[in-house]
Amino acid sequence: MHKGLKKGIAVLAAAVLFCGSAPVDIYAANTVTISTRKDFLRFAKNCTLDSWSAGKTVVLTADIDLGRVNFSPIPIFGGTFEGNGHTISGLNLEQDGSQLGLFRYVAEGGVVKNLKVEGNVTPGGSRSSIGGIVGENNGTITGCSFDGTVEGKDTVGGVVGKNKGEVRECSASGEIHGELSVGGIAGENNGFLAECRNEADVNTEYEEKKQELSDIDTDAAAILEKYRISKENTERSNLTYTDIGGVVGFSDGVVQGCDNYGEVGYPHVGYNIGGVAGRQSGYLLGCDNNAAVHGRKDIGGIVGQAEPYLWLNTSADRLDEVRDNLDILHDMANQLLDDTNGLGDDVEVYLNGMSDHSETASDRAREVKNQLQDFADDNIDEINTWTALLSDTMRKLEDPMNGLSDGIEDLGKNMQDLGDAFSPLKKDLPEIDGLEDVEAQVEKMQRTQRQLAQAVQTLLQEQKALRDAIAAGDQEKVREIMQQITATLQQMMGLQQQLLEEQKKLAGLLADLPDDVKDAADIVQRRLKRTITNAQDALDDIADTTENIADSMRDMSDIISDLANEDPATFVKLGDDFQESSDALFDSMGDISDDLKGLRESLKSGRQTLTADIRSISDQFQKIMNLLFDEIDDLRDGADKDLDDIFIDVSDEEINRTKQGKIASSHNYGEVEGDRNAGGIAGAMSIDLAIDPEDDIAHPKTLSFTYRMKVILQDCINDGKITGKKDCVGGVVGYAESGTVYRCENYAEAESTTGNYVGGIAGFSEGTIRSSYAKGSMSGGQYVGGIAGKGENVYDSCVIATVDGDEKLGVVLGGAEDTDSLRGNYYAEQDLGAVDGISYAGKAEPISYEAMKEISGIPKRFISFTVSFIADGKTVETEEVPYGMETSRIKLPDIPEKKGSFGTWAAFETDTVQGDIKIECAYTPYVTVVSSMEKNESGKMSLALADGDYTDEAELHIFANAEEAAPAQAKGKTVVYDVILEDRDLSDTEKTTLRLLNENKEKVSVWQKNGEDWKELDTKNRGKYVVCKIDGTEGTLCISYEGAAKKTLLFVCMAGIAAVAVIFGAVKLKKGRKQKKQTETEE
User: What residue intervals traverse the membrane (predicted)?
Assistant: First the structure.
């Protein structure tokens, strides 16, 4: 442990002894085991006494179900509760009250860890400080989770209602509801929140009272009065939904490394709504939001309202207190002198000495106590802040470290591929003069690669040592290891540069190889050509991998450098003042002892002159102090102060050293929607002094002193689209009344649908913007700019943006009160000017993309451009493209299938790449029937229909083919058609279901030509169509109307029969005539 920290703990222990000792619990070493519900209920009852759990360890050894049990929360717990990963389920709290959860209070020193809780905490009554696990925490909660519903009025959290201690590595899922200070993990944080994860939806439902039919009044005056009251109630109700966050509702403590995945807020309802914190004035570091955020005013992807950290230059309360105490001192001195008026001089001297020494001793004792308390409080705050900073550094190092490890592994494989490429040529070595040099160079590169791999192993060990040093709180060791890491990184960068040089040399040797084998056999030349191709592929892979390794090393170097630039944790020491106060305390006690001894031996003598002198001194002292305070009163009451005189913004001073009032290294991925003041990181950077949150700051007439304040957004990135209905929409902050935005980046669209003041960094800014970068599109009414809609004090920032609006448009700023407050801002050259259409040299001016890439410190991502294809909320493919490339040349990826629907990629909005592009896929239900363009004679019925799943681009055509002969087997009347079905992504191997018109419902057969042969298809009738399945999506078909053939045959038969009958009749008639003639002859 750090030497200074040990000393501090020792002094704290001494302070406890000095201030008084608490009784010792004789059961301090006890361990309580809980394995049944009965055990748990007994434990809860025992915790009614605050001292019962102190020093105890409670161990949960089984899951506990509290369902169907009338359970009352554990009143107070001050020991260690080890959950061992077990679950307490069936929790159902509905009683009236506040400070409610599974535990009502966790006392200072209490620990609850590794516990899972499932259930519902939905009390009635006052409903303040409501948590899924703890109502109010003054101890430590670590490794715990809650799943269920938590509802309350104010200070409501999924894990803890109000946190004054520590909450680490906890999670929540389910639903959280409340009106004021509501968060997925904690409602309010005055302590330390670290590495927590929220998946619960927070205030995503909003219920308005519905009017019943019986409430309707037919009296006009009554209706108007009810409307007025209803409107007032609604407005008042809206005001209650304030300080709502995905992780915490309100925080003036430390929030580090926490992530939100739950949706936050309800559209157009609520104030100070944030993806991580609703409102914060403490230190928020390394947090991410991954879900949508909605609300009315001051809506941010990370924080709804970034409230400045304030401190007074002078304390009125303290001055009044000093003045009152000086009056008392004056009266006491007079009284003492009155009392000693009749005593001897020596006695009076000793009494005065005792009085003075007693007062001095009291003062010194108070100083010692205050110094000890300040020592403890200041050091605990500093330790928490420093720990958060170091933990965030470790979190940032994970990605580049993983990239570095993966890169070294890939490099090893690349080197193996490079060596393998030359294996086939080993037997040809005598015929290739330069091959030995090539192999030697390959071996050299492999040695460098092995050295890099060894350096990575060293780096991994140093990373582990850094994590251990952070856990131990050893600041000196942390600094030492950081220096070692820096040295290792420098060594690796040297090796990486060496590998690049060796790679270039090998490429030159490979280029010379073909000249060395001109006289070799053809097979050797062919083998060499193939080898060089494989080797070149391996070299290309090595180049890519080496560049990735270099990127990871640069990222790590930047992270370590940022940490090195931070001021070390400054622990308050018990130095000279403490020693002097302690010595003075004991000296005063000794003086009192001497006075007591002298008093016993004193004799009386004259004293009136001495008494008068002391009274005169006392009066004079009082007069001087009164003059001093009267002067302060004159200064204080001399004139009304403007708001700028009351609040002095010093955010731009010592940015890196500042911790309070800061949001740093946080990333928003979620979409943000609000009516006013919507931002990717913070909705607003301001102070709410007005009662109505619809208003901004109103002049507080009762304030008497000045405040200094700081609010800083540093190293934050936004990737979520920001949409506002009215004014002040920004990629980083919507409305910045004060504060500093430093090294922040925005890569998303910012839009106001009906309002003004839209910017890539800030919608409206009266603070300072430094070294920030915006890339994307910004749109609104008036005052639309790539950096800020309207702003001042903008320095060293860059923008690549498209700006759209009605008036007051600029690539850098839509407008500015004074362009003299601008310096060193650049934008990628385009037709629109920098500020309200005009560019200013040295202040805000155009620059070529190539020149912009060379600006020192510019983020790599800012000058890289990607096209992201998104379907159903998921990124399908991301492609890096060059700036200025024609978007028509970008290849669209295949659309992911979605049951019952087809997708269509949205069109590109610009002809060339001017920023990052997101292309969304829109899904539409399939068209299940496609009608042919060709109709029957009446024009009412299609000749063919195609059944299946088709897009709205599908077309079906059917044409008569008079040149194709019908199949010989076809009977009756035949018609030959060519059928063509066209749509995207159709396969010729599939079968297509067709319906062919059979208007007269005749018996038909359908044939499909396959090559030179015809194949009869299976058919069935469906209304006036015949259904069949053809191979593929097009083909030649023959329809044979067999009913027509039978009718023809019948006609032929009938005609034949008639002919026979005629012939038979004629023969018979002729025969009858002949017989008659014979008879007549015989007669």
Answer: 1048-1067
Nearest to 573 by CA among 18, 7, 2: 7
Phi, psi of 232 (to 5 degrees): -65, -45
Among residues 677, 712, 759, 666, the alpha carbon closest in space to that of 302 is found at 666
Taking the C-alpha atoms of residue 66 and residue 88, their distance in angstroms, rounded to an integer, is: 7
Q: Whole-angstrom distance between the N-terminal and C-terminal Cα of the chain?
A: 162
Q: Tell which residue, 123, 84, 85, has the closest CA to residue 102.
A: 123
Residue where the block lists tokens 């003598």? 605
CB atoms within 10 A of CB 1060: 10
Q: Specify whether the CB–CB gap between 362 and 636 falls below 8 A.
A: no
State how far the alpha carbon of 454 is from the alpha carbons of 101, 113, 404, 466, 555, in Å: 52, 39, 12, 18, 20
DSSP H/E element including 742 = strand 740-742
Neighbouring CB atoms inside 10 A of 5's CB total: 16
Residue 323: closest CA among 615, 617, 626: 626
Looking only at the bridges linking them, the beta strands covering 160-163 and 134-137 are: parallel
Over residues 898-919, the pLDDT tens digits come to 999 999 999 998 888 888 888 9
- Pick from 139-148, 446-455, 868-877, 1004-1013: least confident: 446-455
- Three-state DSSP class for residue 668: strand
How far, in Å, CA of 741 to CA of 768, rounded?
6
Contacts of residue 74, Cβ cutoff 8 Å, sequence gap at least 6? 43, 44, 47, 102, 103, 104
Q: Which of 224, 90, 248 has its CA nearest to residue 159?
A: 248
> What is the C-alpha separation between 556 and 560, in angstroms, rounded?
6
DSSP assignment of 1008-1036 = EEETTEEEEEP-EEETTEEEEEEESSEEE
Nearest CA-CA partner of 771 in 825, 848, 711: 825
Sheet strands (E) in 882-1033: 901-905, 917-925, 927-931, 944-950, 955-960, 973-982, 991-997, 1004-1010, 1013-1017, 1020-1022, 1025-1031
Task: Write down how long the chain is.
Answer: 1083
Q: Find the range with the poorest average confidence among 82-96, 123-137, 966-980.
A: 966-980
Instruction: Provide the pLDDT for residue 581.
Output: 55
Report the mean per-residue pLDDT for the chain: 78
Contact 708, 701 (CB under 8 A): no
Written as one letter, the residue type at 139 is G
Q: Taking a C-beta distance cutoff of 8 angstroms, is the pair 249, 307 a contact?
A: no
Q: For residue 34, list its beta bridge partners.
A: 60
More confident: 896 or 638: 896
Structural tokens at position 695: 């208003």
Q: Is 649 helix (H, G, I), strand (E, B) or coil?
A: strand
Alpha helices in 24-85 (DSSP H): 37-46
